[in-house]
Request: fold
Amino acid sequence: GAGVSQTPSNKVTEKGKYVELRCDPISGHTALYWYRQSLGQGPEFLIYFQGTGAADDSGLPNDRFFAVRPEGSVSTLKIQRTERGDSAVYLCASSLDGGGLYEQYFGPGTRLTVT
Amino acid sequence: ELKVEQNPLFLSMQEGKNYTIYCNYSTTSDRLYWYRQDPGKSLESLFVLLSNGAVKQEGRLMASLDTKARLSTLHITAAVHDLSATYFCAVAGTASKLTFGTGTRLQVTL
Reply:
């Protein structure tokens, strides 16, 4: 079946602009995660959704970052007033549920470049 | 705060050789995952380890978990070039969020 999909695959934006990154999880997966991976590093957790609600947003670096999942499926990560330090690959993952017994399946990522 | 350390960070090995990648973590967890990442690609799940003493094998890779020592190992047997990639371990903490290690970049040479 279809895996996790993310759009766009690449996004170049100017400093100060607003961007939206989209994640379409595997059908039936109730848990959805956003991670950020900087060059040469492991992914870092941003936010976790169980259904429509954000169960844990402790990884969001500041209030410029916000994510939604209004219908419990597709999620959008929103970044306001982008900064050059936001440049990274943003990865989305989904799992059957959030209990940790099921592996997280990762999407291909969105490479964000802030110029 | 959960910290995950991997070593080595970089590993160059000849085809046919064996080696082990180590993953240490700082707080109690009984859920550990290994992922593979090829350059410019996303993460591919390799193993899910859910209990102390868990051992899983797939092809030339074998992963184990010792929750008391807070240690997981990924053992490579008779390496082949196709195994060249970056390998990450990740530990599940609260709310199932994963904390990743820094990764081990494996290069298998002829």
Observations:
- Chain B touches chain A through 24 residues (CB under 8 Å).
- DSSP finds no helices and eleven strands in chain B.
